[in-house]
Amino acid sequence: MSLPERSQDGNPSDEFLMERLKEGDSSMLEPLVRRYERPLFAYACRVLRDRERAQDVFQETFVRVFRRRETFREGARFRPWLYQICLNLCRDALRKQSRQSETELKDELPLPDTRPGPEEYSQRKALAEQVRAAIMGLPDKHREVLLLVQYQGLSYPEIADMLDIPVGTVKSRVFHAYKKLASELKGLEEPAR
């Protein structure tokens, strides 16, 4: 399978940059870091719910991309490979946290920029917390695919490739995640605007 050298926006494709990185051009790592800095950090924040640990995972993800560049298969898609590395590091961080019996994770997910009045703000914050709690209460396998679909915009085939599971399994996990969320959040209403 031949992947294009340029993305739709005219910039070098992720796969082209990785091939150059594999050939020894270490300057190709910087454009990949810049391209994925916001979405990958946001993903790590959502999984870990701790900005400091998410920053550590983000940095370690790109250290591993560089160290393991030779393992990137020719013809493979970069984005699922990158997110798989990040997800594995997030899982490791969560396991380490549970072994250390740390207190509850910090909640530092940003709220919308539009500032409602105090009452509406309080209602929205409570609603957002209920949704976050419901998402975090999902089984790991359902939460992971939901975050990848909803917040990272990965396609089902990309997630299947990343997690090494069939596309049908991804679809099933997303379906069950939404079904459980709908059940958990039944009766909640968004505050009036």
Commentary on this structure:
By secondary structure, the chain is mainly α. The protein has two domains: 1-110, RNA polymerase sigma factor, region 2, helix turn helix motif (Rna Polymerase Sigma Factor, Chain: A, Orthogonal Bundle), CATH 1.10.1740; 113-193, Orthogonal Bundle (Arc Repressor Mutant, subunit A). The protein is 65% helix and 0% strand. The chain has eight helices and no strands. The protein has helices at 14-22, 29-48, 51-67, 78-100, 118-136, 140-150, 156-163, 167-184. It is globular. 25% of the residues are buried.
What level of helicity do the residues show?
55-70%
Radius of gyration: 19 Å
- Alpha-beta content class: mainly alpha
CATH architecture name of the largest domain: Orthogonal Bundle
Most strands sheet: none
How many domains in all?
2
**Cα end-to-end separation:** 50 Å
Given the structure, what is the number of helices?
8
CATH topology of the largest domain: Rna Polymerase Sigma Factor, Chain: A
- The assembly state of the depicted protein chains is single chain
The CATH fourth-level homologous superfamily of the largest domain? RNA polymerase sigma factor, region 2, helix turn helix motif
Silhouette: globular
Residue-averaged pLDDT: 83
The string of secondary-structure elements, in order, is HHHHHHHH
How many DSSP-defined strands? 0
| Parts with pLDDT < 50 across at least 5 consecutive residues | 101-109
- Percent of residues in β-strands: under 5%
CATH C-level of the largest domain:
Mainly Alpha
